[in-house]
């Protein structure tokens, strides 16, 4: 299997804070997209698309899989 080139993640605006956090975690992990994808249960291209900003809002299962993979939680509170 070939090596996946990791690019600096796209910077999302404030409305997409959680995607900024995930993109930074992907970049900082030191792991290939293939390794992360295997741990999350998605394709390497999905991880690439999220890290690069091509996918702005992944499916909920993918989002929660990534959060879990990186040891993060998401809390939703009523304002």
Characterization of this structure:
With 79 residues, the chain is mostly helical. Helix content is 49%, strand content 0%. The protein has helices at residues 17-28, 33-40, 44-52, 60-69. The radius of gyration is 12 Å and the shape is globular. 19% of the residues are buried.
Itemize the secondary structure elements and their pairings.
Layout: H1 17-28, H2 33-40, H3 44-52, H4 60-69
Notable characteristics:
single chain, 79 residues, mainly alpha, 4 helices, 0% strand
Question: Could you say which structural class the secondary elements and strand pairing correspond to?
Answer: mainly alpha
Distance between the termini: 48 Å
Number of strands: 0
Low-confidence stretches: none
Fraction of residues in H or I helices: 40-55%
Q: What is the C-alpha radius of gyration, as a whole number of Å?
A: 12 Å
Into which percentage range does the β-strand content fall?
under 5%
H-E order: HHHH
Helical run tally: 4
| Mean pLDDT metric | 84
> What is the overall shape?
globular
What summary fits the major beta sheet? none
């Amino acid at each position: 299997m070939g090596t996946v080139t990791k690019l600096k993640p796209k910077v999302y605006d404030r409305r997409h804070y959680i995607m900024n956090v995930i993109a930074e975690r992907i970049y900082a992990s030191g792991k290939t997209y293939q390794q992360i994808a295997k741990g999350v249960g998605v394709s390497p291209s999905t991880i690439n698309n999220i890290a690069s900003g091509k996918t702005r809002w992944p499916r909920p299962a993918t989002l929660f899989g990534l959060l879990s993979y990186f040891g993060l939680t998401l809390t939703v509170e009523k304002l």
